[in-house]
Fold:
Amino acid sequence: MFFTKEVRSHGERPYGRKEYLAPTDDENTDLGVLDTKNRTGRFMALALQESLLPEILVLKCKIQGVPLHCTSTMISLRIDDQMLPMIPFYGTQILERNQRGHSQHSVHEAVNLVFTGNGYCYFDGKERPLEQGDFKLNVAAQDPLLTKPFKVQTAGHLIQRQTRLPSGEWSVTPPRGGQSLIKTLPLMAYGGYVKPGLSLDQITQIFGSLEKSDMGKGYKLRLRSQKELEVLRVSIPHGGVIQETAYAFNESFLADEKLSLVGLIDAGKACVEIIIDGGKPSVERFTYQSFKYVQEDPSTDTLDLYFKSQKIHEHDGR
Structure:
């Protein structure tokens, strides 16, 4: 229905009720016109398009780790006036023997959840193949639906300085710089732990701390996962204490960087758009955000990523 509605204003005037303006016969002086003849049809079209939206969208993903390409960082320890030799930060020589076997899986700069091109959706609680939906997606097969970056070391040299104070306590200057710490060891970002056949909640940021070897000879880089540290109540950015040794993080973290891969999914950080083309200018885009995942068989390195609509519209051609 096309119509034109006239609205006459009866509200308070800023100069009071007394007439200070000359009277006029021109009705346009106090008459507003709201023309909706082009709006009603658009609202009806939008409602029709929204009826084509699925309640839940499920996209199948492949887990793909992104190996760290720059692994040439060197590290050394200076104790008082004695400087120990530089050795590779990402080599096995610096690690405890029992950590060397799986350290290769900890050297990732990111992990991607890549769309396989397959999936399904729910209409009125009933499952329907993705290709039967009257919509398009803004992603194609092999596109990443979510990327979790990991903190890594790319500097050429890292030097941790430890100085014994007159009190007998140690003052430690972190390898990446910053304020010296008293009786506190810095935790340095090492990379991401990504391994084939791994459950999603085990894909995590890895940290290393340079400390005395378990064998009692020299210093080694001890690797711990973010998940392990959180169990020990060492959290980003506050740090914490493990067996009477205090630890502090040597990097700063933004809000999303503190989240695990699973945490990013739960927080809705994976987004896709459903596109319904009713002919220009009525092309509508509806944003769907992740809210959970299902990984039935970790050995396949695949999972189902679930999305729900956030009712956010972007109207093309406005």
